[in-house]
Amino acid sequence: MDLRFHGDxxxxxxxxxxxxxxxxxxxxxxxxxxxxxxxxxLSRYPDQGPARAAVAARHGRPVEEVLLTAGASEAFTLLAxxxxxxxxxxxxxxxxxxxxxxxxARVDRHILRADNGFRxxxxxxxxxxxxLGNPTxxxxxxxxxEDIARLAxxxxxxxxxxxxxxxxxxEPASLAARRDVPGLVVVRSLTKTWGLAGLRLGYxxxxxxxxxxxxxxxxxxxVSTPALAAMLACASPSAVAAEHGIAIELAGQRAHLIAALRxxxxxxxxxxxxxxxxxxRVPDGTRVRRALRERGFAVRRGDTFPxxxxxxxxxxxxxxxxxxxFVQVLTDVMEAAHVG
Length: 340
Ligand SMILES: Cc1ncc(COP(=O)(O)O)c(C=O)c1O
What we know:
Blueprint: E1 16-18, H1 29-38, H2 49-59, E2 66-69, H3 71-79, E3 85-90, H4 95-102, E4 106-111, E5 129-133, H5 145-149, E6 157-161, E7 184-189, E8 202-205, H6 208-215, H7 225-234, H8 237-261, E9 268-269, E10 277-281, H9 285-294, E11 297-301, E12 312-316, H10 320-339
Parallel strand pairs: 1-11, 3-4, 3-5, 5-6, 6-7
Antiparallel strand pairs: 2-8, 7-8, 9-10, 10-12, 11-12
Helix pairs in contact: 1-7, 2-7, 3-4, 8-10
The protein binds pyridoxal-5'-phosphate.
Pyridoxal-5'-phosphate binds at residues 6, 71-73, 93, 133, 137, 161, 163-164, 189, 191, 197, 202.
């Protein structure tokens, strides 16, 4: 299984992108302008100070508890060095496991069950590093904050991938502001909602001692000046309010997609999707995925996620016109199976 396969590998020119969970709306002026202005200042080495302080304030934490990274993915790479025995809760984004294996950690998998709606059911385990996503990619399931917090133990790092937390209005299950949970590390991304995957910006929030040990391995100037300008802008109260508005709009678009999918014969939506993507199950998924490609739509294959297989497909939530066009094609593809 290729843990380093990501949705961008599904894309090709001319295909409508339902494979990558990054918002594609144009950047608002309050975000585009500071990024553009920063280009006049590239002869200087980046200064993380203002962005780090702004991120700390956004989550109500001291700056010593914030480490800025080139996307959430860099955070997983850096954190993996601290693990010796790791438990990865799947299905989830595969980069944390790939990073752990690259660092030589012993990795075990805990697979959540589809017939249980992919709900969290991790019991007592001995590992010193436990990683899970919330809301989880690709299932779109949101675990209650308390169910996650109770997995903390002294001597364990509990790493929660909150790359998509801002897609849920009000972030009800986020642990980002929690300072009372021992060993809790929250990883956040700014590449999704703000459509900045190419700029690489994210951060982790953790106890000061964890931040200090991770920081020893951070390459100098790991976050570029334009990325820092974007981080500063995205941490402002008005940006957080805008994020909330986007999440509410997304919820309407997702409800539209789910209602349409439920009308398509043979398609099952599992669990209760909460984020910017929806996981479906279809018979003969490889044929369906290929037929969708031939008809102009790229969707994310499920068989590179531990715990899923070829009959699982992940769909990005897009505007309702794109959804309607897609669901029409999906219906044709599913009906063709019955005719053939
Ligand atoms: C759940 C999850 N976490 C983290 C990431 C990585 O995000 P970033 O672009 O910030 O590295 C992704 C990217 O697909 C993801 O799906």
